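User: Could you check the structure of this?
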Amino acid sequence: MSNNNEKTFPSGQALSGQYVSQQDVASLSETSSAEIEVGKPLKRAMTKRHLVMISLGGAIGTGLFLGSGDVISQAGPVGAILSYLLGGVIAYMVMLCLGELAVQMPVSGSFGEYARTYIGPGTGYMITWLYWLTWTATLGTEFTAAALLMQEWFPSISMWTWTLLFAGLVFSLNVSSTRLFAESEFWLSLVKVLTIICFIGLGLAAIFGFISYHGHESAPLFSKLTEHGWFPNGIFPIFATMLIVNFAFSGTELIGVAAGEAEEPAKTVPKAINAAIWRLLIFFVGTIVVICALLPYEMAGINANSVSNSPFVTVFNYIGIPYAEDIIRFVIITALLSAANSGLFAASRMMWSLSAKNQLPKVFSKLTRSGTPIIAIIVTMFGAIPGLLSEHFAPETIFKNLLGVAAFTMVVVWISICVSQFNFRRQWIKSGKTVKDLKFAAPLFPLTPILGGVFCVITCISMVTDPSMQVGFVCCVLFIIACYASYNIFYKNKAV
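Assistant: Sure, the predicted C-alpha cells are below.
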C-alpha cells in the first residue's frame, strides 16, 4: 500500500518526438511532468535526503572499495589524486547540465526524454535503451558477487541460495512502493557513507600521528605521495585510468531518473545535486589521499580485486581495527545490493518511459496499486541472467566485457546529457527567455556542457585503446546501431 504522503501526478499528453520549437521552449518553465508523461501515475514519494543518498549510493561501490587500488598502482599517488579530481570535475559538469534539465522537466524518462526532445527522437530512443543496458548488464554480476562474498562466511550454503535470496530482496524492495525503495536505498547508502567517513577520519588521525600506525614510530604525514617522484609511471596513466574513475562516479545521474518521482523537484533536485556531488568529491579524493599517504603505491594494486587485499582492509589492519576484513566484506555486500537496488529502479523506469511513448507494448507501463512498473521490473530482472551465469561460464571474460559495456554506455549517456543541455539552453535564449527565467541554471555556459562532453569523449577513446575493453566497445556500438535501425524501421513515421 502506498504511503499517505506520496503524491501522484495525472497522465497527460507526451511531447512530440520532433525537435522542440522556440515557442515550445518558452513554455517549458511552466510545463509540469504531467504534461510530458503519459500512462498511469507514478508516485512522487522521494525527498531531498532520498535523492542525495540514491546519488551517493549509486556512485560509492566496488569501484572505490576495490578498484581504487588499481588506479593508484597505475597512475601513482599524485596521479591517482589528480585522476579522481578530474573525474569529479567531469561528473560535476555533467550533473550541473542534468540539474538544469531535470528541474525544468522532472520526468521519469529523464535523459532519454531530454535527448529525444533536444537532440532527436531516434537518439532519445537509443539513449533510453542504452541506459537500460547500463544497469541490466551488471545486475546479475552484483547478485553473484554478493553471493560469493557471503559464501566465504558460510561455505556450506550454496551460492545460488544467496543469489536467489538477494535477487528476491531487491525485487521486493523495488516492487513494493517507491517510498520503500527510497528508504531502503537511503539506509544501504548510509552504511557506505559512514564507512568512508570513518576511514578518512581514522586515516587522517594516523597520518598526523594521533593514533599509532603499523611500521611508523612517528607521524607518516604525506611523504609517501612523492617518495618515488611526482609521476612514477608518467602522465599517460592518469588518462588511461579515466574510464575506471568515471565509472566509479557513475550513478550520480540517478538523481535525474528519481526526479520524476520526487516531491517538489524544483526545490529538491538542485539541492540534492549540489549536496551529492560535493560529498562525492570529498569522499573519493579524501579516500585516495589517505590510501596514498599510508600505503606504498605499488602495494595498493596487488590482487586489489580480492576483499582481503582491498586497500581499505590493509589500512584498517595497520591502524589496528579488529575484524577489518569482515567489516569491509559486509560493506562491499551492502554496496553491491545498493547498486543492484538502484540499477533495477533506473532500468525499469526506462522501460516504463518507452511504453508510455508507445515504443514498447502498453503492458510495460502497467503499475501496481502502489505505483511501481511491475512488468518492467520483472523483465529487467530476466535481463540480469547473463550476469548470473558469469561465474559458471568464463567468469573473467564475461565479467570484464559486461563491465566494459556498462562503463561505455554510461559515458555515452553522460555525453547526451551535455549535448541536450547545450541545445536546450540555446533554444531557451532564442525563444526570448533569459537565464534568470530558469529555475536552475548550469553556470559558465557554454563551457560547462562543452568541457563535460569533450572529457567524456576522451574517456570513450581511452576505452578503445584498452584491449580488455574492446569487445565491450564493439558490442555497445552494435547495440547503438541496432537501436537506431529499430527506431527508423518501427517508430520513425509514427506519432508517439
